[in-house]
Amino acid sequence: MRGREHQDERLEEFIAARSQDLHHDAYQLTAAQETAEHLVVTVLADMRREHVDLTRAGADARLRMARAAARHDAPTRSVDVSQPPRRFQVLARLSPRQRAVLLAQVVDNHDERETARALGLSTRSVTDTLRSIPYDELPGASPHSGELRSLLEEFGDLATTPGPATTLTDVRDAPPPARRPRWTYVAAPLVIVLTIASLVITQRWHDDWLRSPEGLNRVHGTHFPAYTQGYRLVDIHEIAPGPAVPFTVSGDAAVAVQCAVDRRTPTFVATLTSQLVGTFQAQCSGRRAGMHLVPARGDTSVAIHDYRRPRWPVAVYRRVPWDQYPVATTGFVVEHDQTLHGEDPTTSSGSPLQPSSAGHVLTLAGSAAGPNGTFTGQLAIPADVPGTNLVVSGLLSPTTTGRFKVAVAGRTPWTTCGGHDLTYYAGRTNTWCEFVDRRVPQVPFTEFEPPAPSSRTLPVTITVEHARGPWTLQIVADRYKLDNGAVDDAGSAPRN
Length: 496
Description:
- The protein has 496 residues and is of the alpha+beta class.
- It has 11 helices and 18 strands.
- 31% of the residues lie in helices and 25% in strands.
- The strands form 4 sheets. Strands 1, 2, 3, 4, 5, 6 and 7 form a 7-stranded mixed β-sheet that branches. Strands 9-18-11-16-13 form a 5-stranded antiparallel β-sheet, with no helix packed on it. Strands 10-17-12-14 form a 4-stranded antiparallel β-sheet, with no helix packed on it.
- A hairpin with a 5-residue loop joins strand 4 (268-273) and strand 5 (279-285).
- The chain starts with a helix and ends in a 16-residue tail after the last strand.
């Protein structure tokens, strides 16, 4: 309590000593007697509550009043405007902000940056305010004119100074600032939490986008398709020609190399090795030629042999389940340009090899009304000919997307399984032939020396799922005389 009384005693001394100057400066800013008195009382009451050191309070009080006035940009419209002498009328019509900026420039000799810092305004706001002041209507027509400085000082002298006791009483009776509602104290931390959460979520969204096919292509400036042949784009590497560059792929994966922009004909530009058995030659993929995928699994390395580009984009694709792939449903491009015997064995010179004993063609088909289900048949085995091998050849001709599983005597034949642009790893783990894109090719397959039949026929089964239209399966068993590439045409037999 004694501290408050001591503070009031010092405040009373301060008001008695500086009251006239304070009201002078306040009138310069407000151009109205009542408003000037209210400004002085408000500032002094704030300083009293904050226990400001009154030995240096003169400049502090003046700066606080200037900052408070600078928040008001509307021209002064008060009954006091008509009372000053005529030569003060232009000053009286200015807005409080204009007068605060003008005082900082003329009386305090601040430049625009210093004025902005003192009044808590932006530099641009100060510049715009200075341009809006009608200097041509003021004496001197310049913010650095001595006549203008004198006019401002005389304008402040128009203020009437109340007695110190009156001012002190008003300061003591001034109501404290309205307290913030309690909800604001809860809202502030909530806003902070939500802001941080939004930043984290936005960053995660951005990181997820960078891992998406669209984000990967945007970052690397490439045009790899997001989905192709049952695979989804999951990563892109930029590899320089020279020694092999290692990286790791997960699951059933495939790799594609993007051709140069000026190259229309795909060429073999790289060698790929992985945990799959064998070394694969990678053919680059162009926009018109489609995607050429090379299988990969686990630890993988790619060596680029073409030095015409400093870096080659190499995409990594991962096999995705049927229900996670955007399977085409319309607009199919059916590519039926093969025949059943197009994949028959050939001689070492490439000539077609005629069978020594030809079998009958078995045809299984799904109709447009009933393309899905399990279809079976019996494949006739031709008569045995000494020195020959039994070869089963087939051709699957779908017309839409779908899943097809072919089994001959319970075994899945070797096939590219519909991957017309895929150098397919010839394994027997993936027994489904899946057609997922609009391009629908035929699938030839061959089975050398199938399981020895217990009768003169082999059971053939084809299971179909998700097909949208008709399909046919042609399959035949023939016997060929194979002897280290030499062919004995004398034992050939006509096909049935």
